[in-house]
Amino acid sequence: MNESYKNYAIIRDKFGFTDYKVCKKTGITTATMSNWKADKYTPKSDKLQKIADLFGVSLELLATGEEREGGETYYLNEETARTAQRIFENKELRLLFHAAEDAEPEDLEAVHAMLLALKRKERGETD
User: Which residues form the HTH cro/C1-type domain (predicted)?
Assistant: First the structure.
């Protein structure tokens, strides 16, 4: 198993994905994934970018297992990143991520609007 596949597998496992699920989400064939794992093939950069985009990581993290100083992060705001991590680590709340995974953008916008309305209500603001 080559080093980049090992790095990918660590990231994949953190997100609770399987190779099959990654293939379905990215359009990469299972044969490509199997050959990568067997060190018979290294996916081209466009395929690696699809994987990096799926997980919100850099190509460098996939290739080396390390992010250089100032590297890409999924969240621009550290507080948001910490909150998202807490949600991800909480088994019950993690369902939020999985439930939203295949949602249509319009549905996510509706949920977002509802959450904002609840926050306004909590603060005593009215529309």
Answer: 11-62
Distance CA 28, CA 51 (A): 9
CATH number of the domain to which 53 belongs: 1.10.260.40
Domain interval for residue 43: 3-64
What lies within 8 Å, CB to CB, of 101 at 6+ separation is: none
Tokens of 60: 């460098």
Instruction: Report which residue type is found at 55.
Output: F
Give the contacts of 39 (CB within 8 A, at least 6 positions apart).
1, 2, 5
- Using CA atoms, how far apart are residues 112 and 38, in angstroms rounded to an integer? 42
Six-digit token string for 113: 């609007």
Q: What tens digit of pLDDT does each residue of 15-35 get?
A: 899 999 999 999 999 999 999
Q: What are phi and psi of 75, to 5 degrees?
A: -105, 135
Nearest partner of 100 among 111, 116, 87, judged by Cα: 111
